[in-house]
């Protein structure tokens, strides 16, 4: 590849980057301004973690309830499950978030702040994926476990709570961890409705300082650290509850 081809193929390397004036002083912890900016950005962890944890817990609950009809012998219940899952999975998270924030208060005549709008939207969006995770995990349990529980005289709910779900949880822990990471990343979308999460605070600081690359680089590192910690916690939990091989 000659120099002319390189010039045509990578013009942004030769123009855009060379004109940018880096200003890492904006995040220099040795200065009062830099330390204030870092604290402002880090404070966004509170909303990001809260909205993600609540959405995960609610989505797991709804996802389990949605998954159970898919395991029945009723075509109607199975159809309801498929309809819910396919509709929710087809709606982009950002579109659902905007509809919940602007549409629900209008239709239901209720007051809904940006925090709970974010939780509701992420919960609904994630519940469809959780339903599929639970369905797959429960179906992976050997049929003999169901028969053994029934032979002990356990009711359907006792069987699920005491026998099936504890075993299924071991099966689905890795995908649950993946889905929590997904929620953490999707939580950045709540910034568009005004929630002061990590992304919103980064956007506000960019408007004030006019140094987007430095601030968004710090934002990338924030999410990277957060998600790496979550991944490590999930791996630790997997080892803790793993069934010994001997």
UniProtKB/TrEMBL annotation:
What superkingdom does the record give?
Bacteria
- This chain's protein is named Amino acid ABC transporter permease
């Amino acid at each position: 590849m000659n120099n002319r081809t390189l010039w045509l193929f990578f013009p942004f390397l030769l123009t855009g980057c060379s004109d940018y004036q880096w200003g890492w002083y904006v995040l220099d912890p040795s200065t009062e301004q830099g330390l204030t900016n870092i604290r402002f950005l880090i404070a966004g962890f509170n909303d990001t973690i809260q909205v993600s944890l609540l959405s995960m817990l609610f989505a797991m609950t709804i996802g389990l309830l949605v998954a159970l009809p898919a395991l029945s012998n009723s075509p109607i219940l199975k159809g309801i499950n498929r309809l819910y899952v396919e509709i929710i999975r087809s709606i982009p998270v950002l579109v659902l978030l905007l509809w919940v924030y602007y549409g629900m208060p209008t239709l239901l005549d209720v007051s809904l702040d940006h925090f709970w709008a974010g939780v509701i939207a992420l919960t609904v969006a994630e519940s469809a994926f959780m339903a599929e995770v639970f369905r797959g995990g429960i179906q992976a349990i050997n049929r003999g476990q169901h028969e053994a529980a029934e032979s002990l005289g356990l009711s359907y709910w006792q069987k699920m709570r005491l026998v099936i779900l504890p075993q299924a949880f071991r099966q689905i822990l890795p995908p649950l961890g993946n889905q929590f990471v997904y929620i953490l990343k999707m939580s950045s979308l709540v910034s568009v409705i005004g929630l002061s999460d990590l992304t919103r605070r980064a956007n506000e600081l960019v408007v004030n300082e006019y140094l987007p690359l430095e601030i968004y680089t710090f934002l990338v590192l924030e999410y990277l650290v957060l998600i790496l910690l979550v991944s490590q916690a999930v791996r630790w939990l997997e080892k803790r509850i793993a069934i010994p091989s001997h």
